[in-house]
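Renewal narrative, Specific Aim 1. Our central claim is that a sequence can be written position by position from structural information alone. The example that follows is taken directly from our test logs and has not been curated for this report. It begins with the structure tokens describing the chain, in the order in which they were read.
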């Protein structure tokens, strides 16, 4: 969960690889010394580095881990109920799961192992700045299935669809703050199915893990054209091309 003006460099940095980051620890496990780490930009052909580097910018402020900077989040455990397509996180019943701060990459592995897809909650101009394809690729490889923002940068919105990630915007005048969302909820996209149309409104139900309170709101999917709908339905551009080749 992030605020306004998060850039593609925040999402997928091109600069130095920190020694204690997931990417740095991975390189050290392979016997690479810090002097030879180089940068994320130089290793963009290596998905194991770039996925570990997603959301690893030292200037990133994740609102799920207040008071921290860098690729840190609060792991909340996996939801125990709900039928949502894209729950953020949370424990909606049973034994509470202790909350732990850890690298976003490590938390993403735990959610993926539990079969829990995740989403991004964002403010204005999410994905602004230079176009960086790994800002969408890395997010997809971390298990993110949707992003809800006040607004998206044009190219990043398109890149998310090309990776099979659903971009959605809040209705005019609504924000995560006005809706009282804290990022611990389970999010159910109740209208999302194979009949999705360009810029369709979708009802979302956010269930708070502690109280069970449900917050209903409407988002507009920013899959804007029939071609983008085909990309999204197939899981991305590559999958669409492969399906056409098979046919």
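The sequence written for that structure reads:
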């Amino acid at each position: 969960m992030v605020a306004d003006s998060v850039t593609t460099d925040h999402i997928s940095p091109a600069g130095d690889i920190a020694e204690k980051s997931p990417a740095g620890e991975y390189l050290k496990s392979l016997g690479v010394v810090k002097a030879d780490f180089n940068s994320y930009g130089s290793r963009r052909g290596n998905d194991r580095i770039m996925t570990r580097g997603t959301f690893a910018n030292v200037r990133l402020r994740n609102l799920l881990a207040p008071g921290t900077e860098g690729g840190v989040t609060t792991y909340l455990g996996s939801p125990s109920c709900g039928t949502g397509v894209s729950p953020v996180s949370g424990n909606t019943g049973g034994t509470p799961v202790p909350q732990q701060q850890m690298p976003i990459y490590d938390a993403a592995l735990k959610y993926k192992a539990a079969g829990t897809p995740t989403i991004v909650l964002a403010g204005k101009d999410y994905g602004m700045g230079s176009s960086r394809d790994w800002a969408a690729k890395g997010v997809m490889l971390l298990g993110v299935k949707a992003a809800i923002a006040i607004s998206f940068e044009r190219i990043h919105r398109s890149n998310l669809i090309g990776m099979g990630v659903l971009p959605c915007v809040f209705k005019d005048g609504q924000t995560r703050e006005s809706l009282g969302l804290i990022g611990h909820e389970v999010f159910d996209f109740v209208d999302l199915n194979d009949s999705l149309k360009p810029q369709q409104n979708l009802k979302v139900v956010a269930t708070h893990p502690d109280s069970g309170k449900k917050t209903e709101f409407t988002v507009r999917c920013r899959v804007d054209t029939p071609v983008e709908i085909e990309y999204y339905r197939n899981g991305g551009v590559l999958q669409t091309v492969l399906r056409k080749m098979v046919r």
